[in-house]
Structures are given as structure tokens and as C-alpha cells.
Amino acid sequence: MNIADQIKKDLRNISDPKKVEVLSHYFKTGEGEYGHGDKFLGIKLPDQRIVAKKYFKEASLKDVEELLKDPTHEFRLTGVIILTMKYPKATPEEKKEIYDFYLEHLEFINNWDLVDASAERIVGEYLLDKDRSIIYKLAKSDHLWTQRVSLLTTFQFIKHHEFEDALKLCEYFIKSDRDLIHKASGWMLKEIGKRDEKVLIDFLDKHYKQMPRTMLRYCIEKLSDPQKKHYLS
Fold first, then answer.
1. Rounded to an integer, what distance in angstroms lies between the CA atom of residue 205 and that of residue 210?
2. Confidence at 97, pLDDT banded by 50, 70, 90
3. What's the rounded Cα separation, in Å, for the pair 32 and 179?
4. Fewer CB atoms near the end CB (10 Å): N or C, the chain?
5. The whole model's pTM is what?
6. What structural domains does the chain harbor?
């Protein structure tokens, strides 16, 4: 039995069928919804992290690929968690390999929790001291989750008080018709505001009249009540 099969076995052993329906509804797996086709075992995130921690050192990228290509949500999420655990301990050459592997498998990183658990920790970390033009290419993809990867990548930059890329992407996505992109954009703007409120206010003063309501509501969450009232009025 290879490592990927061992991981799948461990996850199946801690699955809870009673949680499957709740998770399927939460991650919108119905016909026409963003998670259509996703399969669930019913496993809590902390338990997936325990399994990932058990195997991440010996799991190869081939093992992770097998997890990512599985229609079971928890297998894919555990796969990306393994990548985020391997990355900090990797050599520069191995980090490049993990980064390339991640971008080559974006079609399988296909729900918001998979993106949010990994994009900043792999793509964001890798690009901190490198050319970042790739995130603008990702933003122009027609793939919802690839677009979200572009945004969540900037969370790592924001944590280093580098706001320019996030602001450019949020401005670009004002014209998006995707609610999950509006939410991610508003989240990144809120994170900027937590670190430098003036930068957020400057962005709002320029764009709030054109911003989708969801994006606007997300980004003003930490502002004062009078400020919220002003931008929502």
C-alpha cells in the first residue's frame, strides 16, 4: 500500500456519515452550484490536519497528486495541507518544485477551503521576493478557483505590509460577477485596513460607488459605525 492509499484509509476510518449531508450543503454541491460533484466523507478539518501531519514527511508529490485527483473533498484538502506542511521545511529547489506542482494542479484545488488553506502559504510565500506577474495571469483565468488563488496569494504580501498587488486585483475584480470573488476581495481589503486604515479608506473613496455590495460589506467590517453608514448609504 502506497502512502496515498494509507492516507485515504486513515481518513475513511475517521469519517462520519452523519456529517456528509451538512458538509455537502455547506460547500454547495447541488446541481448548478459551485461545488457540484464534490464528494464528502464527513471529517473535521482538525482531524484532517492530524492525518496530514502523520504523513507529510514521507508523502511524495506523486502521493499528493493521487489525493488531489480524487473526487473526495477531504482527500484533496488533506493533499494541499500536506503541501503547506512540506513547504516551510523544503530546500529552495524543493520549494520551487512544490510551487510549480501547485500551479500545475490548480484544476483540482477547486473549492474555497482548499484555496484558502494553501494559496498564501505556497504561492504567496514563494513569490514574496520574486516577480509576481503570474498572479495577474491567474486573475484573468475563467476558472473561479484560480481567480481566488490569485487573490488569496496576496494575503501573504499583505501580512508583510505590501498592499499594491492586492489593491490592483481588488480593483480588477470590481467588475466580476462572482460572489465568491467579491467575498475574497472584500476580505483582502479588510486585512489591508486592519494594518493601514488609510489605505483602505483611499481605496473606498475611489471605488465604493462601483463596488459590489458583498465586497463592500466585507471590507468595511472593522470600520466605525459612522464610516460603515457613510459607505453603505
1. 10
2. very high
3. 14
4. C
5. 0.95
6. 1-117 (1.25.10.90), 132-233 (1.25.10.90)
